[in-house]
Amino acid sequence: MNIKKLKRSYPLFIRHLAEELHYSKSTVRDYQAVIDLIFKLEKSTSEIKSYEEVYDYLVRETNLAASTLKEKRTKIKRIADFEELDQFPRYHEHSRPLFKKDKYSMLNMYYHNLIDSYLSKIREKGYVKSTVYSRQHILAGFFYHLQVNNITSLDIVTEDVVLGYFYDGEKELRGADYLQMIRSSIKILADTVQNIDFSRLVSFFPQKKKIKKIYPALEESEIEKIKTLLFDDNKKGLTSKRDRAIVIITMYTGLRGCDIASLSINDINREYNELHIVQKKNGEELKLTILPCVSNAIYDYITNERPKHKNRFIFLTSDKDTRPITPQAIRLLAQKFFRIAGVRVDGGRKGLHLLRHYFATGLLNGGVPAPVISKVLGHKSPESLNAYVETDLTRLKACALSIANYQTGKDFFNE
């Protein structure tokens, strides 16, 4: 932490938030308040030597709610990145971890080298930055658990220490998803590092059955309600042109909310009805031919409702402080749209994912090959499509077997 540097340069940071990112005045004031707090703490106490300690102070000395603390932590991280790395915050990008003493940095050289070999391999495979970070974090946490339990190398690993990472004797600490990521990471390591036998470690992993996600597909009556709200001229006044365009994009392209939030005007070729982006989650290029209803909805929003602003992002906020919409705001507007449409007002899952599901099952029913659908949806693994297939009731019914020849009790169908 270099307070002198921050005092000298923070006006540039504040100006960037207001003029480049178009943050609201209230958000800019919140950042200014955090900076003022940093200056105040540095002046009043000699205990504050780092940005981490500023956050510790908020946790220790204030009664802020967990959600507010999380927001403060994000702001402190971005201020730290600006001062220490000369890095301005950017839209839809995460900053580095706030705490430098993460598990990775506390590993001995043996485990440190293993993780470095693993990271080198998955970067070579083309894993995106966010996935690389999450896998590093998960594997480092597992190796750190071994290390603090005196397992300084995998040659002396024991079953009880490995199991202790997943159970504490009374309850489950980490589930099947966590185990699967560690197992797949170890497999990559085994293929990369030749002088270590990883089979003994793998044999100690618990057997956990992953519970499959079953996505609650939209029923025909629900789809009709959504389409009525989208396309019936008598209903169009119930939603904004922006929200309508976002729902139509999701329903007829399957794009994720983060990709819709990042859409720029240059990503759309209206003459050829094409969309060309780099997907945020996997870093893969995606080129789609879009239906006229999609390009028309975008055009309608841009020409009749979008604030007159030079920002390159298509979808902007509708309040007085014009700025790009966030993925979180898109999720909320999707839920609002479902409510206005009268879909699942009594509860149940609603939102963008159901619209992606509708798009995927439409492609499936149209005979589009599964690898093509996976690519369009931005799935790295073809198995990710299974969750959609398993709720395609029309096809599943065709696979059903008659039980007419099987004897059942008289109350069987009443139970």
From TrEMBL:
- Residue ranges occupied by any Tyr recombinase domain in the UniProt entry: 213-401
Q: InterPro entries from the xrefs?
A: CB (IPR044068), DNA_brk_join_enz (IPR011010), Integrase-like_cat_sf (IPR013762), Integrase_catalytic (IPR002104), Integrase_recombinase_N (IPR010998), Tyrosine_recombinase_XerCD (IPR050090)
Q: In the UniProt record, does the keyword DNA-binding occur?
A: yes
**Presence of the UniProt keyword Hydrolase in the record:** no
Domain Core-binding (CB) as annotated: residue spans? 4-84
The entry's keywords: DNA integration, DNA recombination, DNA-binding
**Protein name stated in the entry:** Tyrosine-type recombinase/integrase
> Which source organism does the UniProt entry give?
Dysgonomonas termitidis
